[in-house]
Amino acid sequence: MAWIMWGSGENEAHPRQIVNADDEARLRGVGKALLAEHSKLDTADPAFEPWSSRVSPDMGIPFPDLEAPIRIQVTKLFAPLTDFVATFAGSAINKRVRDAIEVIEPGVHRYLPVEFTMPDGSPADSYWILNIATRINSVAIDQSTGIEDVELYPNHLPGYREFRGDLLRSRTILTLRSDVIRGRAIWWEAKLRRTIISNSFNEFIVENKVRGFERNTLLINEVLEV
Question: How much is the pTM?
Answer without folding.
Answer: 0.91
